[in-house]
Known about the structure:
Helix content is about 40%, strand content about 5%. It is mainly alpha-helical.
Amino acid sequence: MHPLVALETEYSLWSRDVEKDILPACRELGIGYMAYSPLGRGFLTATIKTLDALQPKDRRRDHPRFNPDNLKHNVELLQPLESIARAHKATSAQVALAWLLAQGEDIVPIPGTKRRSYLEQNALAAEIALSAAEIAQLAKAFPPGAASGTRYEAARRPGHLSPDRARRVQSEAPRVKPGAALERKCRLASSVRPRRSNKPASARCAA
């Protein structure tokens, strides 16, 4: 069994809940931290100030924090971020990433993007040296719990199991004998699409 070396979960100026328990536990155990959605699903780019900035089928329209009333409140949080970005002649996204990088060498932000230009901008965030005062100013502007709205929809949305229900389902699930999962996988593979191979079926399943 290999020791756990990294944990991936959300962390940004907009979502700092992990600072209470999860991040300290990772550091105590020597586990690296991969921060996904470090730009708050695009909010910290300071380019989404109304729903008009999102395409009609953009999934973020269903996220509580992008609800029109919540978004109106959340946009008010951006002013210090935009001000510091102007001072560094950088984008708000770059400063948000620079703040995250300043939280420790064990933190690796993993922003997603569809454009090479944004990828290059994000990489340049590593060259921005925020002052201690700027880091503190941003932390004060975005304290834990400052965002209006939850990260995701209510737990009882269609297709979602509450934690209690998930535990109940898991406890009621039949125990599977070792190797049964592989056996099912082989049966499924053979029933979906025949594949030409010189190997016997037993060899293909064992691969």
